[in-house]
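Human: I'm a chemist; would you kindly supply sequence and structure tokens for a protein?

Assistant:
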Amino acid sequence: MDKTAGKGSLLYLSVICLITTLGGFLFGFDTAIVSGAIEFVKSQFQLSTDMEGWIVSSAVFGCIFGAAFAGPLTDKFGRKPILILAAVFLLISCVWCIFPGSAFWLIVARIIGGLGVGITSMAAPVYISEVSPPAMRGRLVSYYQLSITLGILFSFFANSIILYAAGDKAGVITAQDGGFFQWVFVSEIWRGMFGTETIPAVLFLLTLLTIPESPRWLVRQGRGEKALNVLVRINGQAEAQKEFADINEVIKFESGGFSELFEARFRRPLLIGIMLPVFAHLSGIAAVMYFAPKILIEAGLGVGGAFSAAVTIGVINSLFTFLAIWKIDKIGRRPLLLVGIGGALVSLLAVGLMFNLNISHKFLILVPLLSYIAFFAFSYGPGVWVVISEIFPTRARGRAVGAGALALWITAFIISQTLPRLLAGLGAGNTFLLYAAMTAPAFLFVYKFIPETKGKSLEEIEKHWIDRYNGN
């Protein structure tokens, strides 16, 4: 961003990125709110272990399809319209989750919300990366992950506040008519927990109508004048002209479409874009976030203590994401990932061993569990979205990031769907040792395959892969 841009341009960039990151907030809120509601849903509908897993993982199941279809749609119709479609899905879901009628229809409603989350998980980082100046891109894309962590934190807060307000009558269903509020926030408290998402969903939908389309997508649609206007508004005249020229120059090297990613020169970024999200969720983060109270109850905390500790998890998650945002454009993506993955591995081993040692004060397990959350938030959390949003050629970026998001959500679905069975069959200790074993290869993968991209424009990164293939 050059000096001609001024504070107005910086404010404009900040506002459109903030609006887009509301998708991340809903991502975190939607996928974590179930952690507090599930025990009440399970009690009311007498759920089996498999059905409990489906209620929790249904949103993630929807994310798989949202991410799968979002990539081609954003490359064809643009980033903005598909983000608006995601907001519509999320709004429909959060209203329906208040009045599902049965466990089956609750699953359907959460799948629809998952479609919206899956779309935003792909479209929002791509959009932010395409409007951000190189020097700020890592930080601005990381705001998307921060928004996810804040969504998780606020969902934990919402669950705890609703539970506290309901008191001893929480989830106690009686024939006594106490009115709508009593029904939604006390006797069938899970309805109120799910319903709290309505406000941010409405805000997301309305504010998305005000953002511009991605300038890089506009260039590829032959709408150069409009793209240049957006770039000038964001970067100032001089920097916009340079960036506009770079975008047009790189187009010459693009053979077109998703098939380009299977050419030899782009095989490594495709491998990174798929495997890095997979490794992130093989570490078990979905299990910890979606089943936090359940895991903490296993550690010996009561229901109230487990909900309070879940809030602490959310706070740690947000604080260390702030730390990552502060450092990612200074120390780079690669060092952040290596330090974080190494720390997460050690923490998971400690959680597993402490569960298996059956220590008398099981609440001490919270220490390495929080350490795992901290290291994940410092590395995988923002690192995955930053890296996969910037390593692909622009013509196929939507579909490529969609493939990475699809891989992420398939892995998250498997992890969240299998946790209840793993806890019942292996026990908590061996479950966390399994997650540690699946985390170890990630360190070697990052060390061997992922280059440093801080401070480079998207066009410079694309040229890096082309030059690497040509031996330059």
